[in-house]
Amino acid sequence: MNQQDNQFTIPKNVLENFDIAGIQRKMATADWFYPNTDDPISWLKGHIKMLAINKDLGRLCELKNGRETAKALWGAYTPKDSIIKPDYLSTIKTKVMNDKNFDYLKNQILKMGFGEGHSEELKTKLQSGAPEFVIGHTADYGKDNTAATLQFKKSANTDMYFFNSYNLHLKNAQHPEPIKQTFYTDDHFSLKEGYNLLAGRAVLKEKENKEGQKYTAWFQLDFKESDKNGNFKLHPYHSNYGYDLPKQLEKHSIKELNDPAQREYMMKALERGNRQQVTLIDNGQEKKIFMEAAPQFKSLNFYDAGGNRLKAEQIYENKSGQQQGQTVKQQAEQLNEKANNQSEKQGAKKENQKQNTADGEEGGAGKQTEKRTRRNKQSIS
Length: 381
Prior knowledge:
Layout: E1 4-5, E2 8-9, H1 12-17, H2 20-29, H3 40-61, H4 66-77, H5 87-90, H6 99-111, H7 119-128, E3 132-141, E4 144-154, E5 161-171, E6 179-184, H8 191-198, E7 203-208, E8 214-226, E9 232-238, H9 245-250, H10 260-271, E10 276-282, E11 285-294, E12 299-303, E13 309-310, H11 328-380
Antiparallel strand pairs: 1-2, 3-4, 4-5, 5-6, 7-8, 8-9, 10-11, 11-12, 12-13
């Protein structure tokens, strides 16, 4: 853009106090049609750049004659039928934001696992008064990459906005082409739980049926079946299916089971769908493995540190099964019993040595007495 665009000359004070060339570069290279892309990575790149542009234009509006300059820049670089002009460029008066609505949505975003870093963007979007908007979020779990778009919509009757759903994309070694699932906030699956579901694991959730009765079930995505919107079917495993996680855990010698606090932490992590690290005791030796709940097969899945799947019999050195069925408590009792036996043997050995020493001393004293008696007799005679 030249200093003159649509008969608008950039005021001298704006040129002296603002990096006009910098904002021009950003706007010239922006993807103004990014909201229409299906590629989550491209969407996020476009979204991040647009946030930076809006932030700069907002700062520009604070200067004298800055709003008129920002409008001119927007008109020069924004293609027709692309992104809608933000309200702060359309009117001097800023819409009054509903503070209670802001606080509620901010807390909801936090509880859903998207952190506290979206407050300023949320505030700006609420003040815009747009009928609907999205907020982007990225998170990496090890080598797995996720990109989420949080969907907000304004009520048709009030100034209240609602966080209705989020679209989650997952890209990893198993899925080099990202897979996607829409999670609705009414289902209460957090970001981490949504990731765990897309990664193929199961999550335990409390739900409510049409009659208002609460029930608990394990949920897992069926990647072979999807609905008309492209969402994978969410398959439930109810309590009558017969999966008992504590019972499955008790089949293995897991150290954390012996401590109430560690046991509860491990159970909660598995119920959220995490692949959890645990300490296995085998033949008195400790080793770290990873484990996840597998309600479909009424069992557990085991992995090594590299993420390689292990069969249940592979995690034990003693494959006869004798040690495999023992709990940590049983193994600990055996180890204690062994230690006690060794201690008793050592104690008995020391007692025998002490007794022998005492006997030796007593025998030596008897011989000396006998010698003295013999000498005395000789002297008398």
